[in-house]
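hiii, so i know i said id send this last week but things got crazy w the move. better late than never?? heres the sequnce for the chain we talked about at the cafe, plus the structure i predicted for it. fair warning i was half asleep when i ran it
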Amino acid sequence: MKKYRIRKEVYIVLLFLILFFIVMFMLINKVKNKGYSIDYTVDNVDISENYISTDNLYYFDFNYNNIKYNLIVEKDYIKDKKLIDHINKYESEEYTCLDINSEYLDTYPLCSNEENVIDYRLVNDELKEELSSYYHYQENYTGKINNYNMYNKNNNILIWNYKGFNYIKGDKLSTINIFDKDIYEINLSVKINNYIVIANYEQKYNFNEVYVLNLDTEKVEKWKLDYDISFDSYIAGINEYSIFLVDNKNKVEYELVPHKQKMRIVGNKNKKGIIYNNGESEQLSMNKMISDKKTFTYKNNYKFEIEDNKLYMRILENKEKTLISKHDVDKIVYVENDNVYYISKDNLYKYNLYYGETKLLNYSELEYNKTNMIFINN
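okay and structure toks below
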């Protein structure tokens, strides 16, 4: 009995010690990963360094000659602070570039033209030579597929051909037929996960059918809806597996789940509708949604927008914007992380931080019709 009692006491002490060390480890880890903000100066550049622990994200503001540049790096917490070691400055004519050096972080040059922040690939030839080690190229004319001049084979692109889609994957093209007659605009169409859903435009005034294209199988299925919906409608957005569609004429908001082929009413004249902002739901009156054409916003560290036909990128919620293309841009097609696809005249381009701007294809019809003409399935 005495041996048993001693053994039991030892087990209790060991258990207590294990729990103690687990709790201490969790507390230390929590303190270690706590966000912080610190200001310092390197090579006459004022720096605000911030760690956002909830997103494992480092955010930097650089202020040089009263021009503010910003940068984010997604990375786990680093125990050291003041992570910028040295900044090389290059200046030519009205251009300035800051070459950021850090022992811990992968960075890229931050540039401006007079007072406007620009992508470092938009500088003059002299500075391009100085920054040449950062340049990576993807664009290369690869020939013609159907009516499309191709410059890059690394994307899966669906192009509306008025009866269905031409689906380009690499150097292969397949045709997916949907309608019997030509449909020039498919405003009520949306990509969600591995599906594209399109209202049946061969019905008049109202529709109670949609086509569901499975992008994995390239098969099309007709889905008979539970309600008649006016073509005077718009797609408010998608959230996880659901499409939210607002019928302006009848003041009804629907939720459609294509992979289950189920739908329900989520808003009407007597019930507030639903909007998702950065993943958080918000209720609004149907009158407000319809009058303001309210659409969803999506959480992304990079925000892309067109102002006066120029394409800009913003980081997080900052007001500062960076010009990322020298072309006049007509429409943004698709955004994912720092990748943005967009149409300029009859050309489709892609931009990301690593490659910069890459021309993907040229197609003459894009100059005349840009509404849901292209879907990206990467």
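btw The chain has three helices and 31 strands. thought thatd interest u
miss u guys!!
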